[in-house]
Amino acid sequence: MSTQVWQRPFGAVPVKGRGVEFRVWAPSASRVAVRVRGAEHPLADEGDGVFAATVDAEAGDDYFYVLDGTDVLPDPCSRHQPDGIKGPSRIVDTSSLSIAPGPELFLEELVLYELHVGTFTHRGTFDAAIEHLPRLRELGVTAIELMPVATFPGDRGWGYDGVYAYAAHPAYGGPAGLARLVDAAHREGLGVVLDVVYNHIGPGSEAIGRFGPYFTDRHETFWGDAIDYSQPAVREWAIQNALMWTTEFGIDGLRLDAVHAIYDDSPVHVLRELKERVPGIVISEMGPDDFRPLDEWGHDAMWLDNLHHELHVVLTGEREGYYADFGSLEGVVRELEREQPERLVVAAQNHDQVGNRAIGDRLPPDAHRVALAVVLFSLETPLLFMGEGHDETAPFQFFTDHIDPAIAEATREGRKREFAAFSSFSGQEVPDPQARSTFDRSRISHPPFDPFYAELIALRRTLPRELAVEVAGNVLTMRRGPATLIADLERKTVELRT
């Protein structure tokens, strides 16, 4: 099959005046039909496992694919799952979405604000987040970064267990709600970066696996079966998804989750091809000091947690787990003096470093003030986690809403085992991730922002891109042009001199 045919859109795409074109990769089936408007329509075999047909249907119609006359399943590239992962797919005409153009994002000017749609507001929807955009712009944020919004099991979750990667989560407001949020952000002059997950598919992935070999046993991931990117159609599943978000929804950039768990031995790595084909900035999350995203795949930037780890250990004294190798002022200086600092996204807190703690507790306010000041004064690209602009004290806990009782129980037990050996959490009960109260406790408040953080962000636009760092005892001094930041990491005080 030619590259041009592979790259024709998968899913259900309305064709003006001609109905809807359905295209699906289903090499595990010999016959495929689409069930829509009470009738089944056979799809033509285009070769190499691809089936397609144009059918009399329109946006708003629900449909299932029927494999070999027996398996009735949602579309792996469904644009909307209004009734969750087991319900029908719904046709969406993304060409009808009205989204204002976004600002051009430059790394040297980028200030990211990471938020979880479900806990950012009491209503937990895309529309509810819109009213807070003007305040974020006034704080100095230049782009919001949405934690994953792909449809996952149940209503509550972090989003990293998405099953239908193309379908904005119905509990948040679905594709129309996401489009309204992106449009509103652009009208405020804010960019939108979306967190996407291409390293695994969450519980319920067996429905997608029924269509064909999406997964491989040649590799393993911590979260589920590894995705098989040796399959051209699976590469297209990921890359077309990235293209949909950036072209049809106007998303200005993507944050690729845990790329160290994306395996591809092809001559051109799937993540390099993604960058070559997808507009907007591409930021990778890489766990260890592995700079392939920048050096080999051409990505614009990558998350690097080392500065967070160094500051966290110095300020708290915690050294368990992955903190064991961190915690020196020399380490802080090393991280601040890295080359091409704008290509490294750093944070005082993010969803992982808060939420992956046993009780999701944040840094104490005095320690947080120091850590965030250092991050904002640095030359790296700063990311604030929701609530940091006012030293939020509400936790961000690990919450799920798995609809499979066995998976729900396994998640509970796994969470308990994960922290059993940590003395710093001894005697504390790990919150039940399935409990509604765990989700509710994670909602943030919205008091006025601390003007100190707004001042630091505003300075980033005026100070030279040069940094001098000195250490005397436990005092870290950072100088950029006429401005000096003095952070006492033992007393947990920070002073800005301009």
Which tags fit this structure?
498 residues, alpha/beta, Immunoglobulin-like, TIM Barrel, 8-stranded parallel β-barrel, 5-stranded antiparallel beta sheet, 16 helices, 25 strands, 23% strand, globular
Q: Which term fits the overall shape?
A: globular
Report the helical percentage.
Answer: 25-40%
Query: What is the name of the CATH superfamily of the largest domain?
Result: Glycosidases
Assigned CATH class of the largest domain: Alpha Beta
Distance between the termini: 63 Å
- Biggest sheet, strands in spatial order? 10-11-14-17-18-19-20-21
Low-confidence stretches: none
Helical stretch tally: 16
Q: Biggest β-sheet, characterized?
A: 8 strands, parallel, barrel
Strand tally: 25
User: Could you tell me the strand content as a percent range?
Assistant: 15-25%
Domain tally: 2
Structural class: alpha/beta
- Looking at CATH, which topology of the largest domain would you report? TIM Barrel
Radius of gyration: 23 Å
CATH architecture of the largest domain: Alpha-Beta Barrel
Mean pLDDT: 95
